[in-house]
Write a structure and sequence with these properties.
With 199 residues, the chain is an alpha+beta fold. The protein has six helices and ten strands; from the N terminus they run αββαααααββββββββ. The longest helix is centred in the middle third of the chain and has 13 residues. Pfam families: YjdM.
C-alpha cells in the first residue's frame, strides 16, 4: 500500500482538516523530505491552496480546526497548530492553541516553518548573494573551511553540500554533510546552487 492509499484509509477518503470529500491531495509537511504517515496529510484543494498561499487565508474556513486539532494523528495536529498560529490575529485561535500540547521534538518540527512567528520575528537564511535558503537545498562552499572535531579536515571551496538543514533559531547557520561528516556552516560562506545572483 503506498502513502496515498494509507492516507485515504486513515482519513476515510476525506480532508483531514475540514472533512471535505472532493479533490483530495496528499500533502507533505515542510521541512520533511520523505513521505510517511507522520509527515503527510490528505487535504482538499481549498485547504491545500490556503496552506501553500497564506495570502488567500479565509478565517471562516478554518473554524474546522476546532475539531481537526484533536486528531490522533501527529501530522494533522501539527498542521492545525500551524494554521491556528497564522490566524492568531482573529482572536479565537489563541484559545485553541493554548489547549494544544506537543512533545519537544514534535514542537520543534511544528515550529520549523515559522508559522508561529510574526513577520518581523521570522528568521530568514540567505546565502552570500542574498538568495533565500530552504531546507533540502543544495549549496556550494565559496571558500575553504576548516572542519574541527570529529572530521578534522578542510572542506574545499566549490564543494557541493546537498540536502541542507536550516538552524531554526540562527539565520547565519545551516547544517549539512561533507565527506560523511555532519557540520554547521555559516551562510556567508555558501552560494545556493543555481540561484540567480542578486545585485
Amino acid at each position: 500500500m503506498n502513502i496515498r492509499e494509507e492516507l485515504e484509509k486513515r482519513s476515510g477518503n476525506q480532508c483531514e482538516l475540514c472533512t471535505a470529500t472532493g479533490n483530495l491531495n496528499d500533502l507533505r509537511l515542510k521541512p520533511s523530505l520523505i513521505d510517511t504517515l507522520d509527515t503527510n496529510i490528505l487535504v482538499c484543494d481549498t485547504c491545500k491552496d490556503q496552506i501553500e498561499n497564506p495570502e488567500k487565508m479565509d478565517a471562516n474556513h478554518w473554524r474546522c480546526l476546532n475539531d481537526s486539532m484533536w486528531s490522533e494523528h501527529k501530522a494533522v495536529q501539527i498542521t492545525a497548530w500551524r494554521m491556528l498560529h497564522r490566524l492568531k490575529a482573529e482572536g479565537w485561535p489563541q484559545d485553541l492553541i493554548d489547549m494544544m500540547y506537543f512533545e519537544d521534538t514534535d514542537l520543534r518540527f511544528a515550529e520549523a516553518t515559522g508559522d508561529h512567528l510574526s513577520e518581523d520575528e521570522k528568521i530568514i537564511h540567505r546565502d552570500s548573494n542574498g538568495a533565500i535558503l530552504e531546507n533540502g537545498d543544495t549549496i556550494t562552499l565559496i571558500k575553504d573551511l576548516d572542519v574541527k572535531g570529529g572530521g578534522n579536515f578542510t572542506a574545499k571551496r566549490g564543494t557541493a553540500v546537498r540536502n541542507i538543514s536550516l538552524v531554526h533559531d540562527n539565520a547565519e547557520h545551516i547544517e549539512g554533510r561533507v565527506e560523511g561528516t555532519h557540520i554547521v556552516i555559516l551562510t556567508k560562506f555558501v552560494k545556493k546552487a543555481n540561484a540567480p545572483q542578486q545585485s
